[in-house]
Design goal:
The complex is a heterodimer of chains A (311) and B (634). Chain A contains nine helices and twelve strands. By secondary structure, chain A is α+β, with helices and mostly antiparallel strands. In chain A, the strands form four sheets. Chain A has a five-stranded mixed β-sheet with strand order 3-2-1-5-8, with no helix packed on it. Chain A has a three-stranded mixed β-sheet with strand order 4-10-9, covered by helices on one side. In chain A, strands 6-7 form a two-stranded antiparallel ribbon. With 634 residues, chain B is an all-alpha fold. The two termini of chain B are 20 Å apart. The chains are: A alpha+beta (311), B mainly alpha (634). At the A-B interface, helix 1, helix 3 and strand 7 of A face helix 5, helix 11, helix 12, helix 13 and helix 14 of B. Bound molecules: protoporphyrin IX containing FE and copper (II) ion. The site of protoporphyrin IX containing FE has 24 residues of chain B, from helix 4, helix 5, helix 15 and helix 17.
């Protein structure tokens, strides 16, 4: 949230500094009063108290002190903060109403799927244009997850049977890290994604490219890779648009080579990591819903070569 | 009134003969003495504190650096779940029942709790449910969906093992104990106070136990209902929480937090009561604003039932609904503010003596204020939506729970243990323990605010490097071990004092409430004569109260006619009846054992075993309620 770049997060960062200021002041006052009490403990003891008597009366200022500092002042501060809160709630909810585009994000154990208008489907990487409000519809395929990109926006839960909404907006091109915030089981810690903000024209090009089906592979190795992909277990869970692989259990891999990470942020998208992941996903991400494969190293090599053509 | 007089004047066996319990190891099974039961609660709860603490240290070790593999993700998830469950249900609530059990009858001048056997039963069920929950470790199926156990993650589809059954049944089990204890406190506090202890002379700690008990009675049933629904769904295929079949996962969240938020106050209110008990003693000054504090405690308990939805600000509930909850969440801060400034007023009016218990109180004040302030921030909805379920939350509630509970509790330990054992704890070691705990606590939990604001979600078994999280995590881990060391120092002090502590005498601190008017440790019957109270600070104002034997001329009632104590009226504490108290019995421990076996039967689906358990339980109950004439035998 600190290092905020999105409209929503920036707003909250300002709000946080106000809250922090008030809190620091209150804490300083309490600490100061405690110091006063400690300093005053050395004052002389009246004779009757020295003899073990305990003063009978309440100090005259006691009641009004409690009323003033325990009720009146806090009530004023709290009422003010409540007013600010309502204001902020209003600010944060309004941009969502005039969004230029809607992206549907679905949480899965333990990865993210994003669907765009025009048919593009990506996993664990969500692209948005800068300078525009993007509405995000939030669904879940299994348990409760929570969509959180701290530098851009507050979090919103994805709950079975419900459709929640949030929005993203940033003027800064960049790559923003997001992570599931609601405990969702074994690999909750590795349910990571990135939001990539690009200038509108770059974004438009990207989106058009992602909507395309995968081109047929060229070269013997990659062609063999496609063959392995569609005939082995891979196609039981994954889809590559333009091939016969059309399952929707795991992430859509049509343009996997254009992504920067695999395994929902766990590994960088390199040939070596791809090979390691395909051979045994359980090593990098124990419990992930992808089984290890018993492919030969040659087959893995062909697969990787194929996947790397999928730009 | 006539009956009271008759009973007190008949000459009969001595109090020792009437109240003396069998001694020896076995007698700890059958005792119904509130002091021994209180001690058992205290020690058992501390054992669970150690268990929960070890779990948290393993977690912190795993998080000391990014991408460590000390433990597997499964184990990590089990550890934070068991840590939360242990700390909330097996440590915090019972430890306060323990102190309350020991102290409430003494503070109100009674000879025991209203229902001594129910009291014993409460303890045994607590122990049994703790054993039940921890037996999950032996089976390898440890609850792993967090202490609030959200569905559908904890439902039959995503948690097919018996892990979650241990959780749901365990909480139903421990609720039996907590509820029994709460009812006992309510009746004891309302009906068993010494003559003259009108409602405006009830010590604030006792008020805290009363507020806690009422909250328990109203809040706990929703948790039990939620757990029963969950078990129906898990074991019998119902669909309360299953969105695919017309259920709603948010129902669980509502039910859980309708209980869960008051639970926070269930823990905090008696702890704040401890603070209010210590401050007059260590300032030599009557509490400024007694009425304010009492009203504030009650108001907190009440408003605490109207803020549960602030745990659900990110679930997409309607804005209007949310803003009402935000309002009540802001205003629940006011009663806490009232108490804080009443304490400060007393500190300023009096002369703080910096003994170990007082250090814990002052440390508590600073830490609790920070926890309260970050709590208020959560009422600011958009901020909550940003840091919810991040480490900022972990920081916040540990400032409230460790600051608000553990510090007062350790202060209370140094303060009251001499009353319980007759020996002082070491002052020097106490101060070392305090400063280590205070430093360790802040080093451990303050950086978590930063981690949360930097975006680290809670309940993650590891994290990536290069995010700015590594430094704060390492610092936090170091602090956790320091905190653990500080806690260990006090435990060592406790053990040491058992043999080497200086004799405490009746009133080592110059306390103001009735427990200081009897010997340390107090005799089975607490007071030789049940005192007549004429002040909120009786031990300060009534010199005739010394040695637990207020002379009859001053109003002390020996009540020699049997195993007797006095029942008085609710508002002004006038004597109403003499109550016969039951003797030691094995029925509660047998009944609890039956329950334990029964719950094991249910969790494993071994219905025969469950039947055996139910039979043993019934046997215990029949023995318990079998009509006997012992109450009239005097
Ligand atoms: C003894 C010192 C303590 C340490 C070092 C400690 C540490 C921790 C840590 C590191 C977590 C977060 C785990 C995660 O999110 O992955 C945690 C969670 C928690 N702690 Fe503590 N804690 C301590 C004492 C307490 C006490 C005294 C209480 C309550 C009375 C408490 C109640 C909780 C609860 C309810 C959770 C949440 C569990 C969950 O997420 O389900 N802790 N603690
Ligand atoms: Cu998730």
């Amino acid at each position: 949230m600190l290092r905020a770049d999105g409209l929503g997060a920036l707003d909250i960062e300002r709000f946080w500094w106000i809250l922090f200021g008030i809190s620091a002041a209150v804490f300083a006052i309490v600490l100061g009063l405690m110091m006063v009490a400690l300093a005053r403990r050395h004052r002389p003891v009246p004779a009757d108290e020295a003899a073990g008597k305990h003063p009978e009366d309440e100090p005259a200022w006691g009641g009004s002190f409690i009323l003033f500092s325990g009720v009146v002042v806090p009530a004023i501060i709290l009422a003010g903060t409540f007013g600010l809160t309502l204001h902020e709630m209003n600010v944060l909810s309004s941009p969502g109403h005039h969004a230029a585009m809607t992206i549907t994000v679905t949480g899965h154990d333990w990865w993210w799927e994003a669907r765009y208008p025009g048919g593009a489907i990506t996993a664990n990487e969500i692209h948005i244009p800068t300078g525009e409000v993007v509405r995000v519809r939030l669904l879940t395929a299994d348990v409760i997850h929570s969509f959180w990109v701290p530098q851009l926006q507050t979090k919103t839960d994805m709950i079975p049977g419900r459709t929640n909404e949030t929005w993203l907006e940033t003027g800064q091109p960049g790559r923003y890290r997001g992570q599931c915030a609601q405990f969702c089981g074994l690999q909750h810690a590795h349910m990571i994604f990135y939001v990539v903000a690009d200038p509108p024209d770059t974004f438009a090009t990207w989106l058009a490219g992602q909507a395309q089906p995968a081109p047929p592979p060229t070269g013997a190795l990659a062609t063999a890779g496609e063959q392995i992909f569609t005939t082995q277990t891979c196609a039981g869970c994954h889809a590559i648009r333009g091939t016969s692989a059309a399952a929707r259990i795991g992430p859509d891999l049509t343009h996997i080579a254009s992504r920067q990470t695999i395994g929902a942020g766990v590994l960088d998208n390199t040939a070596g990591n791809l090979a390691a992941w395909i051979t045994d996903p359980q090593h990098a991400k124990p419990g992930a819903d992808m089984p290890p494969t018993d492919l030969t190293p040659d087959q893995v090599q062909a697969l990787v070569a194929y996947l790397q053509t999928l730009n | 009134m006539a009956t009271v007089h008759d009973a007190t004047s008949s000459s009969s066996p001595s109090l020792e003969e009437m109240w003396g319990e069998p001694q020896g190891l076995g007698s700890w099974l059958s005792t119904v003495d509130h002091k021994r039961i209180g001690m058992k609660y205290l020690v058992t709860a501390m054992v669970f504190l150690v268990a929960g603490g070890v779990e948290s240290l393993i977690m912190r070790a795993q998080l000391a650096q990014p991408n460590l593999h000390l433990i597997s993700p499964e184990v990590y998830n089990q550890l934070f779940t068991m840590h939360g469950v242990t700390m909330m249900f097996l440590f915090a609530t019972p430890v306060l029942s323990g102190f309350g059990n020991y102290l409430v009858p003494l503070m109100i001048g009674a000879r025991d709790m209203a229902f001594p056997r129910l009291n014993a039963f409460g303890y045994w069920v607590f122990l049994a449910s703790g054993i039940f929950l921890y037996s999950a470790f032996l089976t390898g199926h440890v609850p792993d969906a967090g202490w609030f156990n959200y569905v559908p993650l904890s439902g039959p589809r995503f948690a097919p093992g018996i892990n979650i059954d241990f959780y749901a049944l365990g909480l139903i089990f421990v609720a039996i104990s907590t509820t029994a204890g709460a009812i006992n406190f309510i009746v004891t506090i309302l009906k068993m106070r010494a003559p003259g202890m009108s409602i405006n002379r009830i010590p604030i700690f006792v008020w805290g136990e009363l507020a806690m008990s009422f909250s328990i009675v109203f809040a706990l049933p929703t948790l039990t209902v939620a757990c029963v629904l969950l078990e129906l769904e898990r074991k019998f295929g119902f669909h309360f929480f299953d969105a695919g079949h017309g259920g709603d996962p948010l129902l669980w969240q509502h039910l859980f937090w309708i209980f869960g938020h008051p639970e926070v106050y269930i823990i905090i209110l008696p702890a704040l009561g401890m603070v209010s008990a210590l401050i007059p003693t260590f300032t030599g000054r009557r509490m400024v604003g007694y009425i304010w504090i009492v009203i504030a405690e009650m108001a907190t308990a009440l408003i605490g039932f109207g803020v549960w939805t602030h745990h659900m600000f990110t679930t997409g509930l309607p804005q209007v609904a949310i803003s009402f909850v935000a309002l009540s969440s802001f205003f629940i801060a006011i009663p806490s503010g009232v108490q804080i400034f009443a304490w400060i007023a007393t500190l300023i009016a009096g002369r703080p003596r910096l003994k170990t218990p007082m250090l814990f109180v002052l440390g508590f004040l600073l830490v609790f204020v920070i926890g309260g302030l970050s709590g208020v921030m959560f009422a600011a909805v958009p901020f909550d939506q940003q840091v919810h379920d991040s480490y900022f939350v972990i920081a916040h509630f540990h400032y409230v729970m460790v600051g608000g509970l553990l510090f007062p509790l350790f202060g209370a330990l140094y303060y009251w243990l001499p009353k319980m054992t007759g020996r002082m704890m070491g002052e020097g070691l106490g101060k070392w323990s305090f400063w280590t705990m205070f430093a360790g606590f802040n080093v451990c939990f303050f950086p978590m605010h930063v981690m949360g604001i930097l975006g680290q979600p809670r309940r993650t078994y590891t994290y990536q490097a290069g995010l700015g999280w590594t430094g704060p995590n390492l610092i936090s881990t170091i602090g956790a071990f320091l905190l653990g060391l500080g806690i260990a120092l006090t435990f060592w002090n406790w053990v040491w004092s058992r043999w080497h502590g200086a004799p405490a005498g009746n009133d080592p601190w110059g306390g103001d409430t009735l427990e200081w008017a009897t010997t340390s440790p107090p005799p089975e019957y607490n007071f030789e004569t049940i005192p007549t109270v004429a002040s909120l600070e009786p031990t300060w104002d009534q010199p005739n109260l010394r040695d637990g034997a207020q002379p009859p001329e001053a109003g002390g009632r020996p009540l020699l006619g049997g195993h007797l104590t006095l029942s008085t009226s609710l508002l002004d504490g006038t004597p109403r009846a003499v109550v016969f108290m039951p003797h030691a019995t094995l029925a509660p421990v047998i009944a609890s054992l039956g329950l334990l076996v029964g719950f094991w039967g249910v969790v494993f689906g071994a219905w025969l075993l469950a039947g055996v358990g139910a039979t043993v339980f019934a046997g215990g109950m029949i023995d318990w309620f079998w009509p006997r004439h012992q109450t009239q035998e005097t």
